[in-house]
Amino acid sequence: MSAGDDRVESLDVFRGFTIFAMIVVNNPGDWGAVFPPLVHAYWHGASFADVVFPWFLFIMGFAMPFAFARRRERGHARSQLYRRIAMRVTLLILLGLVLNAAAGAQAAAPLRFPGVLQRLAIAYLLTALAVLHLRPAGWFVATAIVLIGHWAVLARLPFDGYPAGSIGPAHNLAGYLDAMVFGRHAMSTPIDPEGLLGTLPAAATALLGAGIGELVRRSSSPEARLRLLAAAGAIALAIGLAWSRLLPLNKHLWTGSFVLVATGLAMIAFGLTYLVVDVRRVRSWTRPFIWLGVNPLATYCCSELIGHMLDATWMHRTTPKAWLFWAVLQPALRFRYAEWTSLAFAVAYASFWTCVAGLFYQRGIRIQV
């Protein structure tokens, strides 16, 4: 891999898989009938649904050294990079607010300020600035400082009359800060999963991805890259699981143990993808994921927006989604267990957006978000 590579195909495939998984997780046919791996952990613990977004953040960071190196080779000045970063951050925040407005329109709820795209924007900004201004060794040092510092804040800082170290769903520093800053403009299930305090370790997730991406970019052979990804993934996973005995895995709080476990799994999963796609060159199955991987955020935003529209009530009677699920899909499939029908709806919905991404790909349309 080098800066001059136009695309790293396995990275597009892995990115596309995460987008497909995010759409599936966010759009079951029936929220009351979902397989446990596709349900977010209520508080401590982690399921497959919990690691998908961290995987996307890791991929975003992993791609940065390649992207910035390519632009420097093309003669882009640092000021041009700053403008590009600022434009992307602004667009992501605005799109996130639009999606939040669409989600809350039906219930006339206050506009939620935090969100997936807002967290992605801030993580991108902080990671990009670190990549531009620090040496690669500094990226790992900064990641360690953020994760340990976040742990120290959770463990040592009392708040609102509660003792330091309170990290239950009803009383924790992250929820307290969000309530102070955002008030009713934050989710509370039990706390906002994209709140303020967790955004720093989320950025560290992307920065760790950038560090691994830089090491992979400088590796001399496919075998060396595979060894690096396997070893780094195993080490991160082992440290994260050991740390979770003191600091539980928690996506809502985005704890350091959760970061290391999620990124360790991401390294191993990407290593396997790289082995199959770029080393063994088994690519017959990859095309749909490449379509999604080339236009990931545009596809995600469209799927979320239409998903909110499908959840809007028709004339105070039912929603398009409920009609499709109960009147069309359920009678057609007649699965014994409702979870299979719910999953079929989610997969069908994700597949529809995969086809849309395929049309964009075939026509050479690439929407930069």
Secondary structure elements and their pairing?
Blueprint: H1 9-26, H2 48-73, H3 78-105, H4 116-133, H5 136-156, H6 173-182, H7 199-218, H8 222-243, H9 256-279, H10 287-294, H11 296-310, H12 320-333, H13 338-362
Helix pairs in contact: 1-2, 1-9, 1-10, 1-11, 1-13, 2-4, 2-7, 2-9, 3-4, 3-11, 4-7, 5-7, 7-8, 7-9, 8-9, 10-13, 11-13, 12-13
Report on the architecture of this protein:
With 369 residues, the protein is an all-alpha fold. The chain folds into 2 domains: 9-39 and 285-369, no CATH class; 44-281, no CATH class. Helices cover 67% and strands 0% of the residues. It contains 13 helices and no strands. α1 (9-26) packs antiparallel against α2 (48-73) and α2 (48-73) packs across α4. The protein is globular and about 60 Å long. The mean pLDDT is 94.
Helix content range of the residues, please? 55-70%
> Helical element count?
13
Strand content: under 5%
- Globally, the shape reads globular
Concise structural overview:
The chain has 369 residues and is an all-alpha fold. Helix content is 67%, strand content 0%.
